[in-house]
Every structure is written in C-alpha cells, then in structure tokens.
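Tutorial handout. Part one gives the primary structure; part two gives the three-dimensional structure as tokens.
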Amino acid sequence: MKKYLWTLFALILLAGTSCQEKIDIEKEKEAIKAVIEKEKNAFFDRDITKIGATWVQDSTSRKTYLTQAGLIYLNGWSEVKQHDKESVESDEWEEREDIMAHFSDYEFNIYNNTALVFCNTKWTGKYKGEEISGEQKRILHFVKVDGVWKYDLMAMYSIPAEEEIEEGEGEPETEETE
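Part two.
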C-alpha cells in the first residue's frame, strides 16, 4: 500500500510541475528591452513620473555610477528619485544637443520573476557645442511586479576614453630623499 501511495504522490507532483506555465524567454527579453527603452525615453523627455513607472519604488532599489571621479551610490527609491529629479531639472540640458544612448550586446539571465541583464551603452551628441562620445557597461536587475518588469538595480561603469587612460599611464611619481 505504501508503494502505491508513493507512486500516486510522485505522479501528482509530476503532473503539477508539468502543468506549470513555461517561460517564453524571448518574449521576456523583449519586454525587458522595452522597459530599458521606456526609461531612457522618459529620461530624455525629462519626465520623472515616467521614469518612476519603470522602477520598484521601495527601499530595495539601488542606482550606482562608477566613474573616474568616484562612486555615486543611491540607496532606495527616494534617493534614486531625488537624483533623477535633479538631473532632469538641471540647467545643463540647455547645453546638450542631440544626446543619444544606444544599448547593445545584451546578456540576459532570467529566473522566473527576476532578471539580471548586462549590456553596453554608447553615448553620443554635443555638449556646449563640442562632440561627445562615451561608453558604459551596465548591470541591471529587474523584478516582475504584477506582470510588469521593473528596475530594482542599475549599476553603470563609465569606461574611460583612451586619452584619459594614456594620461594616467607612465611611471609613478616618487619623492626623492637625501
């Protein structure tokens, strides 16, 4: 009798797991890319409400910038929102022209209702009349909330331009002692 109960239990367990909805990875990748583009467009439109719609709005959200000047670490939605609000309201927008961000080289790791995404960002345009160009590596984490993907982490590393790297090369300076 025990043998039959275990067999019945195994069949029920197998039937339950085989009836679970399969994740369409390609569909999820496209949905995540759409959120990335939506957040970018909201940023360029300087619309903090639309930016906020792409984020989990609680204390678990994080945004990090790793630059040559140092680290900017925003902890929780209130800090992320305040930083983004200051950015979109900045007078520097008057000095910017044709600024674009192009995302490429996506790598997706999707696990049910969370996703880890790696990608590159290429920035182009003009600032104060001068051509600019920059590259970033991004690590993005998403959580599916009520069927919609939302950021809860955005970490961006700004890759130094070659001339910035060359300026830092050479022999380290040392003090001579007598």
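Part three, for discussion. Helices lie at 2-18, 25-44, 48-52, 77-88, 162-168. The chain has five helices and six strands.
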